[in-house]
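Q: Protein A?
A:
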Amino acid sequence: MAPVTIYHNPRCGTSRNTLAMIRNSGIEPDVIEYLTSPPDRATLTALIAATGLPVRDVVRVKETLFTELGLNAPGTTDEQLIDAMLAHPVLINRPIVVTPLGTRLCRPSEQVLDILPIPQLGALAKEDGQPVVDAQGRRV
């Protein structure tokens, strides 16, 4: 089986929940902490293309830096957004997960369940206690 990769921020609850769901399938993914090991331009553009999302949807628009850099200005191009994400990885929305079944920006974290090649092994709840998977490994 091809590896599963998560572009992860350990300080992000959504990212931690997504990682827990991957591991609940019995998969130990390649974990890339993108704030300390950011993707290069080719990798970032390939990831964005693979998600099928517009570039703007992969940018953390709620990040203060987004506004400070003027990225909310009309006419900001995809190239300018990518340049900003490369210069400031905190602007990359997360988590992005790559599996043999596809690439997703997993917001909400449950989206990862649609692209995992192995079903959930048992019950799992998010950090806040919200159940995600029942004891039979089915989505709640």
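Q: Protein B?
A:
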Amino acid sequence: MNAPGEEFADGNRGRRCRYRGLAKTHVQHVLTALAINVERLSLQEPADGSYRPRPPTAFQQYLDARDLPRPLWWRQGK
């Protein structure tokens, strides 16, 4: 993993600011730091490991019982 400053400067184009003015520059840096932290948190595994996938819906059970393919939804990322 990169050092925090390198990650900001290299990975998120932090060397150049999109806006002029100290206040707007500060807002951009805060939002970029927030995005970096969210990305870091999304890569971590849950501490308790109690995640269980949801049971299939009635519609999914209907499709599975008849050997029909399940449609791909936008939330599945496919």
